[in-house]
Amino acid sequence: MSTAVPIVLAGARGHGRWHLDNIRRLQDKGIVRLAGICELTPLTRAELPEGLGSPEQSADFGVLLDSTGARIAVICTPIPTHTDLALAAARRGVHILLEKPPAPSYAEFRRMADGVAEAGVVCQIGFQSLGSHAVPAIRTLMAEGVIGEVVGIGGAGAWARAEAYYRRAPWAGKRRLNGVDVIDGVLTNPLAHAVATALALGDTVRAEDVTAIETELLRANDIESDDTSCVRVTTAQGRPVVVAATLCAEDPDDPYVVVHGERGRITFWYKQDRVLLQRADHGPEEFEYGRTDLLENLVDHLTDGTDLLVPPDTTGAFMKVVEAVRLAPDPAPLPEQAWQLLPDEQRRVVPGIDGLAAAAADTLALYSELGAPWALPARTKEVST
């Protein structure tokens, strides 16, 4: 374990449990060592995965970084805390794996990214789908003209969340909390990977790659933020990116991104690393790919110079989408006749939304353009950099 990189995890409950398990996996390989856990309430012995030892625990992130000699901080805390915690690590020379979304506003994102760069440390943004080996493979297919000229990219995410999901934390489903931006909407948090992956496949990753953004933000649940939304990004390359997402699906399924070409299409189920290639005069071809873990990639970058997969500036376009959602009017509540409550699951469902999301990804149209009776006209935000 002498060469293992010491790590502090901030936020070990909820999604942080995934990071705990991943750190244990890498610790078993001798790559990292969990040196500390930052939580307001220490984890009990039962909450620690077997084999992680007895890491130091503290509610004070800075003190924990200092006392453990951590070289990497994994930050999986509420969205509004991301920037301050990342900068606290950067000031101490500690490198960072920062969960998505990296910040609740573009200004906070720039404050984080600029501060990290000035400190001379490395930051990896936790869009795990961008570690999929399918991403460069699809880009190669696009570049080689396998599906002809690319005309646009769509994405669809039909997920389900019970009403209790919005009671799991004070910030859940909020746009703001105590005057601070949160922006916990379906496009910016639960299905943020669909947005980021669609943008990445279109090589629209930096803020300057985005020229305009149209949003339609709605909600079936009794929350501040959106749970049923779509977005269309106008890009500098001239290829639109449209993503439709909901947490009120009738039949939840894996989200996907689809690249539309003049002579075919490429569908990517990013949680499965699975790709379907369909093109003229050929039978369908299906491929499965491996995936590089982002924490492991960060360690490899620090130890042998391997290229970092998701540095902050490659999420600038995604953060422009977050900013457009932030500046949009508050999401409109769907009329009561547009949704229904499933009593057994205590979750709200929007009938027909699964098909609408798929149609948006297929046609690059927004809900209002597809004739959804409850949709409002899109709000367009011209993007400046």
What topology does this entry show?
Layout: E1 5-10, H1 16-28, E2 32-38, E3 56-58, H2 61-68, E4 72-75, H3 82-91, E5 95-98, H4 106-119, E6 123-125, H5 134-143, E7 150-158, E8 176-177, E9 180-181, H6 192-201, E10 210-219, E11 228-235, E12 241-246, E13 256-261, E14 264-269, E15 274-279, E16 285-288, H7 294-304, H8 316-327, E17 332-333, E18 340-342, E19 347-349, H9 353-363, E20 379-382
Protein name: Oxidoreductase
Keywords: Oxidoreductase
GO molecular function: nucleotide binding; oxidoreductase activity
Describe the overall structure:
This is Oxidoreductase. GO terms for molecular function: nucleotide binding; oxidoreductase activity. With 385 residues, the chain is α/β, with parallel strands linked by helices. Helix content is 26%, strand content 25%. Strands 7, 10, 11, 12, 13, 14, 15, 16, 17 and 20 form a ten-stranded mixed beta sheet that branches. A hairpin with a 2-residue loop joins strand 8 and strand 9. It is globular and about 60 Å long. The N and C termini lie far apart (45 Å). The model has no long low-confidence stretch (mean pLDDT 96).
